[in-house]
Amino acid sequence: MTKIATSLPTATIALDRSSATALYRQLYDQLRDAILSGRLPPGTRLPSTRELADDLDLARNTVLNAFEQLYAESYLERRVGDGTYVSPQLPDDLLCVKTTPPTKSNGQPISKLAEPVSFLSTTVANYSGPPRPFRTGTPALDAFPYKLWGRLLTRRWSESAREILPYSDSAGYFPLRQAIASYVATTRGVQCSPEQLIITSGSQHALEIVTRTLLEPNDGAWIEDPGFLGARAALTAARARLIPVPVDADGLNISRGMERCQDPRLIYVTPSHQYPLGMTLSLSRRLVLLKLASQTGAWIIEDDYDSEFRYVGRPLAALQGLDTHQRVIYIGTLSKVLFPSIRIGYIIAPLELFDAFVRLRCLAGHQSPTLEQAVLADFISEGHFARHIRKMRTLYAERQQTLLRAGKTELNGLVELQPSDTGMHLIGWLPDGVDDQAAFRAATEAGVEVTPLSAYSIKPPERGALRLGYTGYKPREIWRATRRLATALRTNQCLAPSGVRE
User: Which residue from 25, 199, 405, 497 lies 20 to 30 Å from 209 (Cα-Cα)?
Assistant: First the structure.
């Protein structure tokens, strides 16, 4: 990429030394604003931290702290032996294939709080229309019990319309809270009462409630790297200071997290099935994490997404069930288990946080639709939910095997699919040196909906990979899409190592 000469007029950086906001945070905010506004375009080389500290009369550590946060959020990149540059792909480019700049009403700019949030996304690509292989997070809608759901819906409407039409409790329809509390206690080892459970409009809504309630600007927040984009977006929107923590075969690497921030305010983790790589947080690390939270006063968000779908043995017990100090906030969703448009998730909160969460949930929308909550309560309490999960577990295991067979036949030498004991997607590793963003673009042009591992990563991964969802697709669709993916990768020469392609 063509270099752009250093272009950072320090006179435009105005630091208020009397402000309660730390100097490094002021510098970080102003550099990020300059990058997002285009005043520091991609490829711009910045002065060294020593030079900038001298120019601004700051301690070098102040500048280093600001730069480290910008590195962590992918606004800046280091080039060994060559200095620091504005990243060629900014976070909005990384998280979305197509982005629409925030519109302005009557010529008035959006608020300073909203501006950074407008560049965030919870998905890698703006896919639209019916899902196609291998879009992730898609349940087997072809196997959903539509007639049964329709009968329950008709019965509820005819028998309980007067009960469910008025406003209801912002924490959610109590029989549903009872049903979910009983279910997670039995299947996940969660320790809770219905009085701790809050119904939300999906897991992203739950994350928004938790992060906005607990975080002050610049609070440190551990986040898995690679990790869930929705969590990264929620934490950034809450103005948290992101602390990317790498994962390994045992899950979140706690010792590496301690090296980067010893007193996080919040820790986001997916212990049962790490998102997106799929490993499980080991018992020893679970105990260390809980001890850390109790000693430092940190809160742990346990996102227990798609843990129902474990194909070997029983689902693993939740981290929350091991917590004896009430530091874990448990989040779950039914949108991927049943069907996406149901938009029902939940928070299981420590009792001291329950009222605060409900108040913020009420501000964001008084309640989720009561009719759907009532039907779901019946679906769970009458045993239909447990039977549906068992059926889907068998079906999804079969569809994973179909994808593995198709991959072995069609993708040999192109993508190495890694089997998984749980979840709704597989990771397909690319050969060393292959750019997963290029593979992603080639697949998208061919009508195949994969996602690149690098899009979930703050620090670039050592090896490129693609994430392939399989649960929502019939065997013939999986085979057809696998062939198209193989053709796209070969045709677009995605296998040429980085720096070799012409």
Answer: 25
